[in-house]
């Protein structure tokens, strides 16, 4: 207890501020890796409707590795097609262009739309399944101290945060500051809009006056996932750099009553009054993005948000959809925002405090990427902090977070800078509209790999080995590029015969995966190569002792931070589980042999997605195979020949703490 | 309150005895159709491990129509392959034959294995989502009276059951009568084995001595899903006819430690010591069926069950797997049973009381069908009782339950009579073993359509219209045969562009589906036919008033017990939602147009299962289409041309109560 009578003090390894999709994704990693962590959120209740909804392929692949994608697929709305409407020669809107993603077959999962609240629920359920971590709601941080002197000591708690528990009334104010009446059709849309001021200071002030319960928390790491108004970022004096445009947009989730034929298809509609973006979603809802007002250039006066109402948005949509009718009776949620692109120059302070998601990059929501980028930021920093906090990985890996994610945040802003103006440039004459919809398609195509998450562009680092000599593409596995995602494929289990996607096999459980692409074991020479590799991995050669005992365990979870997985290319019926070296299919005295570890790239004939073409997808020779290390976040870390065990061990030594070693210093 | 001080009296429409898979499936229908129902179970807790595990394609299709299949797929183990081992020429066991189902592409869902306890949980969750029905556990029925005089009055409650609430101790005794010690490795396996006596009377006796709380329940309908020892069946004096063989089998769920290569593949292993059945399942478990003893022929003495132990089963498995090693440390569950085939001559009493599942048919569990047959019994009787109790359907449909399901139960026993002896005939010489494994494959193939649920053989009735002139196959839709399942296909939504399986579209919500296979709407004549049909259905012709208002609603759920669904065959991009008649895509003033009702049989190019071949699967002309009525349980009721509306309405009139009409008498 300190100066205030009702202040206690406690310690945690990781403190997470904010329990939106980004904060929850961070907490997921702590739960999976058994790290002591706390997560707070100022709001008293979870988000139930509205907010973000776009889910890109890569995000869904990560969900599958977390074991929650089946729930998303069950409820979500797939968008694989887009239609761009603009006036035809007679001035009536027509489908000027349609678009189906060329990338649609590059992932087994299609882009989807599902409300943020459901996503949060699924991640929460997973956190609960793996740990005792609970979101502490209605809790706000009041002060942050960071003692850089203690940085070198991994056992120290250099971060001190004072937490304050809000009253129920205060917490519900944080949930929805402007809506006192619950009888309105839709919640007041300007909650969490960037048009409203931040209420954090106000909440602290009220709570102080009430002499609320406070707590001093000492933490080793702090991760700020507290949104565009990020309190954490402000405490660190990290600015958001960039600019706002002078356009105000409305967003509304409604059940439409319209004879416009493509209201249930992703697309845009343009006429002389402007452009709207149409996004169909679950439960008959359609989200519309609508330009509502241009702020007078040069004014410093705060925009008068009271002029934006669902009624005003309805009128604007009608103008743009003319001559089609448009109305709604059910409005589930709405908000308004000012378009702008801003980014923080750094995502970390001393690699002890990290910022993720909207806290470090804001943009217009129209590209359907915000929630994806935010969760992928946290997915990236989460496992790194978890493994370092657990004593499994060297703290040096923490310095890869900023370069890996900052570059992508810049691409996100770049995409938005190309995309948003297409909605506000008012060139709507019939003669120009085909050009405009063409431009929309061109911009979409330009950024598609990035937006869907099919390319990550992670640069060389301790976690990403790049081939020597500067070649971008490893000769042994032309499509397995370090720093990029491991392209999913459906494989057949050797012992069982069933088929599974790689992203579900490569569970996000904190382990690095050493993937042995064993090639065609029917060939004598290749079988020898695989057995020689097994010999080396088991410690009878280059590696001194078994690779599986070389590194510190993940305490309470796994004896080794490595998981070996073998994928061969011979026909399934011509191979046997016991053909493979012991270390690739180890025997546990209680759990028996590890039948889940040997896989086959062969088509069983009854699963159209298990087509026996994985080696081709990966650009790997079917006879000779390859050796691959995949990071815990399913990005490729290292690629080589089956003989390159020494080089692989050097890569792993640079990342993982040796077993029995004292903790390294920062 | 009556003779006992603590007896109350209440009314319910439907009382279900037993909350295993069969009872829960019945309760599901009451939940979906908003019928007042109660479900009791003598056991104090839900089944957690062991018991049934086999799930056939058709069961999974029904799960999908209930909205729970994604959870089963996430956890279950797919079996698409089987291996039959027997001694080779040198006496060492080899894979004599392997087998992949020829039917595997006839359903999008493959046969699976998953523990009964998980299935029960999924159905329970669905019941909870749709109703307030709760399983009343630790409740037993003590007496049953049925007043046949009241049969003709649908508002009467001719059934009187006295319920008794067990104490916690009694209820846990019911859960596991022989296991007092919770420290054993596996629960005592003889609970619910057919080798143990029924404990129902004993529980009533104990409970009476305690002066337990009792309740008189008056019900309109009673459904007994209370297993092989069915108390309900005994009260009705309905026998189980058939015989037991003299073979005792053990069943054990273990995590195996063995170098037998196919321990994770479905299959059999035979040698001179006997035959075992190997069934891999979720969580590394393998189930083994093992012959343990032959009862002396002609003895009436009860089999000495104390001689069967996991240790004895382990020894038997070792004998049969020789020279492969075999051991286990984890035994999750085990039991033993005496092989026999028995069936009740009738499944109903006065069409007010029904029996389903093991209550009316018992067989050896080795065909992996028991849970499927039991759930499908309930799925069949459940919707019929629910719709009659809700005043939606004529009571005459209740008389279709016995003939539809009794015939299949006989086939089940026939299958078992062919299959079980293959495990006990001891012809294991090397020269004969290939013949034996060949016979196993032949028997499997012979019963495959039936076992997987791909054929139902439901005969002509008020619910199944058979073509006139005695042809089995309707000319207009050669593969849509009344009385059979509607073969699943993946379709593209016209308004949205997304792809969905028909079994998920045809939700098990109590409604009949009128499926308009609209053919190729690009052809002028065909478009005219479809619009003429729309005209008729809307009540401007043969039907007097709109078909959608012709029948009594499902109270509190749907305004009409019919759901119209249109599937056309033109290319998706060449059709529009608004091309179709109003009645096929109705407008709701709040919910807008019914975008979910118009579907297209076209391949989008990005979904390998949506291949644009549904019309071919159904044997329907792509230009001319057809008209189909599908029952609430996804079986086909009626098939005709688009012009045969009068005939279709006669079919529906025979099943459904006209709107505004007084309730018909029995």
Structure, explained:
2 copies of one chain form a homodimer. Chain A is built from 16 helices and 28 strands. In chain A, the strands form 5 sheets. In chain A, strands 1, 2, 8, 9, 10, 11, 17 and 18 form an 8-stranded mixed beta sheet that branches. The two termini of chain A are 32 Å apart. Chain A folds into 2 domains: 445 residues, FAD/NAD(P)-binding domain (3-Layer(bba) Sandwich), CATH 3.50.50.60; 186 residues, Glutaredoxin. Chain A is globular, with a radius of gyration of 26 Å. The longest helix of chain A has 20 residues. In chain A, helix 1 runs parallel beside helix 4 and helix 1 packs parallel to helix 9. In chain A, 26% of the residues lie in helices and 26% in strands. By secondary structure, the first copy, chain A, is an alpha+beta fold. At the A-B interface, helix 3, strand 4, strand 12, strand 16 and strand 25 of A face helix 3, strand 4, strand 12, strand 16 and strand 25 of B. Chains A, B: This is Phenol 2-monooxygenase. Chains A, B: Keywords: FAD, Flavoprotein, Oxidoreductase. Chains A, B: Belongs to the PheA/TfdB FAD monooxygenase family. Chains A, B: It holds the Pfam family FAD_binding_3. Chains A, B: One of its GO terms (molecular function) is FAD binding.
């Amino acid at each position: 207890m300190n100066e205030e009578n009702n202040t206690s003090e406690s310690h945690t390894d990781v403190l997470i501020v904010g329990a939106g999709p980004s904060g929850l994704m961070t907490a997921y990693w702590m739960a999976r890796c058994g790290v002591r962590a706390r997560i707070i959120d100022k709001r008293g209740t979870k988000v139930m409707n509205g907010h973000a909804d776009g889910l890109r392929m890569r995000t869904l692949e990560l969900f599958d590795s977390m074991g929650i994608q089946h729930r998303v697929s069950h409820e979500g709305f797939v968008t694989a097609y887009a239609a761009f409407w603009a006036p035809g020669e007679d001035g009536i809107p027509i489908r000027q262009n349609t678009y189906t993603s060329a990338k649609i077959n590059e992932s087994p999962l299609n882009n989807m739309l599902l409300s943020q609240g459901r996503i949060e629920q699924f991640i929460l359920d997973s956190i609960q399944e793996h740990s005792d971590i609970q979101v502490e709601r209605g809790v706000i941080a009041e002060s942050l101290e960071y003692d850089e002197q203690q940085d070198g000591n991994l056992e120290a708690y250099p971060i001190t945060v004072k937490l304050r528990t809000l009253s129920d009334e205060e917490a519900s104010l944080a949930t929805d500051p402007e809506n006192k009446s619950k009888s309105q059709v839709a919640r007041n849309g300007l909650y969490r809009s960037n048009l409203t001021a931040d209420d954090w200071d106000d909440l602290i002030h009220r709570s102080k006056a009430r002499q609320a319960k406070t707590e001093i928390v000492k933490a080793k790491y702090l991760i700020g996932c507290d949104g565009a108004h990020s309190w954490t970022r402000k405490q660190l004096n990290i600015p958001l750099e960039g600019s706002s445009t002078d356009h105000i947009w409305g967003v509304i989730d409604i059940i439409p009553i319209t004879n416009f034929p493509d209201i249930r298809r992703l697309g845009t509609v343009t006429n002389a009054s402007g452009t709207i973006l149409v996004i169909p979603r679950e439960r008959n809802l359609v989200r519309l993005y609508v330009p509502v007002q241009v702020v007078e250039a040069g004014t410093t006066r705060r925009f008068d948000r009271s002029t934006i109402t669902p009624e005003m948005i309805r009128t604007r949509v009608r103008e743009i959809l003319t001559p089609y009718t448009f109305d709604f009776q059910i409005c589930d949620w709405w908000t308004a925002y000012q378009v702008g692109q801003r980014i923080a120059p750094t995502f970390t302070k001393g690699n002890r405090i990290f910022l993720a998601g909207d806290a470090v990059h804001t943009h217009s929501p129209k590209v359907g990427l915000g929630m994806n980028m935010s969760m992928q930021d946290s997915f990236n920093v989460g496992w790194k902090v978890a493994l370092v906090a657990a004593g499994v990985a060297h703290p040096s890996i923490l310095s890869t977070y900023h370069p890996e994610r900052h570059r992508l945040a810049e691409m996100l802003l770049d995409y938005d800078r190309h995309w948003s103006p297409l909605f506000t440039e008012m060139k709507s004459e019939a003669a120009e509209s085909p050009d405009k919809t063409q431009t929309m398609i061109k911009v979409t195509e330009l950024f598609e790999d990035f937006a869907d998450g099919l390319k990550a562009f992670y640069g060389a680092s301790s976690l990403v080995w790049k081939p020597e000599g500067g070649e971008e593409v490893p000769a042994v596995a032309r499509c397995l590029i370090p720093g990029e995602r491991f392209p999913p494929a459906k494989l057949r289990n050797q012992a069982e015969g069933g088929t599974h996607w790689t992203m579900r096999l490569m569970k996000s459980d904190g382990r690095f995966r050493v993937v042995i692409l064993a090639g065609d074991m029917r060939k004598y020479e290749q079988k020898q190569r695989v057995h020689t590799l097994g010999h080396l991995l088991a410690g009878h050669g280059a590696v001194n002792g078994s690779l599986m005992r070389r590194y510190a365990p993940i305490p309470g979870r796994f004896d080794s931070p490595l998981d070996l997985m073998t994928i061969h290319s011979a026909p399934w019926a011509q191979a046997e589980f016991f053909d493979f070296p012991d270390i690739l299919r180890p025997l546990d005295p209680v759990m028996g042999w590890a039948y889940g570890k040997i896989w086959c790239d062969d088509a069983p004939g009854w699963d159209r997605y298990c087509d026996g073409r994985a080696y081709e997808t990966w650009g790997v020779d079917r006879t000779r195979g390859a050796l691959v290390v995949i990071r815990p976040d399913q990005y490729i870390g290292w690629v080589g020949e089956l003989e390159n065990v020494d080089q692989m061990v050097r890569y792993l030594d640079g990342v993982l703490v040796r077993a029995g070693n004292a903790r390294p210093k920062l």
